[in-house]
Amino acid sequence: MSQKPGNSSLNQVGSVAMTSLRVLISHNRYQIRGGEDAVVEGEAVALARAGCRVETVLVSNDIIDSPVARLRVAIEAAHAPRGIARVLEAVRDFRPDVVHVHNTFPLVSPAVHAAVRAVGPATVQTLHNYRIVCAGALLLRDGRPCEDCIAGTPYAAAVHGCYRGSRIGSLAVARMIAHHRRVGTWKHDVDAFIALTGFARDRFARAGVPAERIFVKPNGLADPGPVFDGPRQRLLYAGRLSPEKGLSVLAQAAAQAGLPVDVAGDGPMRSEVAAGPWLVPHGALAPAETQAAIARARALVVPSLWYEGLPMVIIEAFAAGTPVIASRIGSLAELVEDGVTGLLVEPDDPGDLARALRRISGDPAEARRMGRAGRAVYEQRWAEPITTKALISVYRAALASRFHALKRAASDHGGRHGCGDGASQVL
Q: Which domains can be identified in the chain, with CATH numbers?
């Protein structure tokens, strides 16, 4: 698969600025649609609006539908030859300048970066969660943040069953993490990384990802339109129904506050949500329905117990002028300004969360003020034109890195490329 860099590769990378960027997006979809899937779709549309030519390669975990399929995927997780073959086929057909990789687990594998760079394009990796470091992807164990695998061995996950409570499954994922750490995938095979927050960037840098190649670029959102100016009464949770999201804490807090909370979403805790009187389940809503519910809520509640990346529901809330009540943990404390765009509460503290629910429900004027402040932050940081411009800047940086790597490799092999100053052409 590898090839020596020659004149054609250098010329292709060095002259990208003369034409529209050609971007191939690779993403392994989840069985239950979540924020990452929405981000991938939104970025593809935004890049096309900005004048880029965009193609996507999407694989889905829906094909993992039997014990045999699960065993095969576990065995292949470190290399995923069939998934990589699909990406390489798209590279040959589309001839992209940049391949932007989102989720690779488990059907594509981080090995896609080396395979793609061997045939020419630059690669970019968005780090939506902590899967490249942590088998469970959440830096969470026993309901508490855990950073043991950032600097330690990923095989600790097999002892604790961090991947879906399975020691065997955790061993397979830990093996994948250890393999790519050992062969230097993150140090040598990726031209640029995207972290969603400064908090996440710091964790990945501590885990050995080259800090100079990690760019903080938040997810963006197309403007949903004017802020709803009517009365807002209900509190809302919107997201996956799973333990790390703090739904048990939310149920206790709602009961203590005597305030019902609407719940939009699906996941393994759907029965627990349905059983409690203070959480009102609405099931998985269509994206437009979720956005409408957020726009009419008194506040959005994000009671997470783990280090969230950048939940799209927070961006949707601020775009809609809706304040956010969130746990003071990880990047959430970076995203929500306490008393300005919402309220921060101690994680896993039903009493503190109940106080915040009562405060924001009992003072509509304060809630409106926080909502307006959130809308201003959205316009400054997360509006689609701003984040798309930042994303294209990351692509330019990746292309510059790729060009100089090719140039050095060609020089090492005695190549004569005649490209002039490639850095000025790329940037």
A: 7-220+384-426 (3.40.50.2000), 235-382 (3.40.50.2000)
